[in-house]
Design brief:
- There is one protein chain.
- By secondary structure, the chain is an alpha/beta fold.
- It is built from 15 helices and 16 strands.
- Strand 8 and strand 9 form a beta hairpin.
- Helix 3 crosses helix 4 and helix 8 crosses helix 13.
């Protein structure tokens, strides 16, 4: 019989959003000698990350259901949890959070819930379902201080009262900087997590193993990565010296990609050599494509769809541009920063908790998005400033938004709630 702590991640679907991708990415850094991870989801999509979860050592389970159908799955989910003898439920996003609280009413099992967005941005059903059941869990994890504040402002029954069951913790999203980095610049960086590349007679530490690597081997790897970027540029027909402004996102209304394209069109008129790259897909894609076609600058835009491997595209980017109306704390932005890409963005959600205006990039207020144009143009034109901000962007992620830090805080929460439950 396994002595590991069995954690069940509960989430509605496994599309390629930031919340979903955090499940396998954290699992890869967790101490899997202590924890055994499972994931139960309900809505199956063709473009999903099931293979990524399984590759991360997570056992994946599906109980088919739509949104409202989740309320008819309570008994089935409860029986599944009892049969599998899970120690803790970790739910993500409102629908799974509501379900977990109903399931937990007749089970003595700790519930951790991660809130990835501010409450005022949810539809009425999600908002009220979340609000009415919120006290029936042990820890609510907010991915940013703004998300935590929204919980407090929208709670009319004060689930935070002293002595109550529920505790609120801010655990800001993180990135594994051993995975995300500027391919051709990796050389004697700060180590984090499971490894650190070094050159010459030094060594490459991976876990507990010490693997010798020499300068020649490292150089060959770097050249190979550079060639891949060159080929990608050629495939997309982006000239070698052209600056690339990009974003990775699900094409939802909150991202305001029509404003992103509008800014791009204005900038192309001033800098015709600039190219704009969007990685992702969603309900707004056809409208965005129509807007681009009408602009007459189709050759300057590249919509590459959903990609399992985004690092090559992040390595193409010189600037990460975001026009979002609201956010939690966007993972894709942190990944871009880890790849030394400065950020120009609206101060939406947790973005303002990461980017120091004028240091790792530039920020505007959400309703002053037009200011972003001048900031992008400044970074295109001032090469030294761009280089400084690129270094500061990665430094900020390494020091304050690492996956190692995030996982350590989650494991501390798991340990605490399990201790309280005994």
């Amino acid at each position: 019989m396994s002595s590991k702590i069995k954690i069940l991640h509960l989430i509605k679907s496994l599309g390629r959003g930031g919340a979903e991708k955090l499940i396998p990415e954290t699992a890869l850094v967790h101490d899997q000698s202590r924890f055994e991870f499972h994931c139960l989801y309900f809505f199956h999509q063709e473009q999903n990350i099931v293979d990524e979860l399984e590759a991360a050592g997570i056992q994946v389970h599906l109980i088919p259901s739509g949104n409202l159908g989740l309320f008819f799955q309570v008994q089935k989910v409860r029986k599944f949890i009892e049969d599998q003898n899970f120690d803790l439920i970790h739910a993500h996003l409102p629908w799974a959070g509501i379900l977990a609280r109903f399931v937990g009413r007749k089970l003595s099992i700790p519930i951790v819930y991660t809130e990835h967005n501010t409450w005022d941005r949810y539809n009425k059903v999600s908002f009220w379902g979340n609000r009415l059941t919120f006290k029936n869990q042990d820890v609510a994890v907010a991915v940013s201080n703004e998300v935590a504040l929204s919980m407090q402002l929208n709670s009319i029954w004060d689930p935070y009262k002293r002595g109550g069951r529920l505790k609120v913790r801010v655990v800001q999203n993180g990135v594994n900087t051993e995975t995300f980095f500027r391919w051709w610049k990796r050389n004697e960086e700060e180590g984090e997590g499971s490894g650190q590349f070094t050159v010459g007679s030094r060594q490459l530490a991976v876990g507990s193993e010490q693997v010798a690597v020499n300068s020649k081997q490292f150089a060959v790897g770097s050249i190979s990565k550079q060639r891949e970027i060159v080929r990608l540029r050629e495939d997309l027909r982006i000239p070698k010296e052209s600056p690339v402004i990009g974003k990775v996102a699900v094409f939802r209304s909150q991202k305001r990609l029509w404003l992103w394209v509008e800014l791009a069109i204005r900038m192309i008129k001033k800098h015709p050599e600039a190219h704009f790259l969007l990685v992702g897909d969603g309900e707004w894609r056809s409208k965005i494509e129509e807007q681009i076609e009408k602009s007459g600058f189709r050759a300057n835009f590249h919509l590459v769809g959903v990609k399992k491997e985004v690092i090559p595209y992040l390595n193409l980017m010189h600037i990460y541009l975001s026009t979002s109306e609201f956010e939690g704390l966007p993972i894709a932005m942190l990944e871009a920063m880890a790849c030394e890409v400065p950020v120009v963005a609206t101060r939406a959600g947790g973005i303002g908790e990461v980017i120091q205006h004028g240091k790792q990039g530039f920020l505007s207020e959400v309703d002053e998005w037009e200011k972003l144009e001048a900031y992008v143009l400044r970074l295109i034109e001032e090469k030294d400033l761009h280089a400084e901000m690129a270094i500061e962007a990665r430094k900020q992620v390494i020091e304050n938004f690492s996956m190692k830090r995030m996982v350590s805080q989650l494991e501390e929460i798991y340990t605490q709630v399990l201790s309280n439950a005994r």
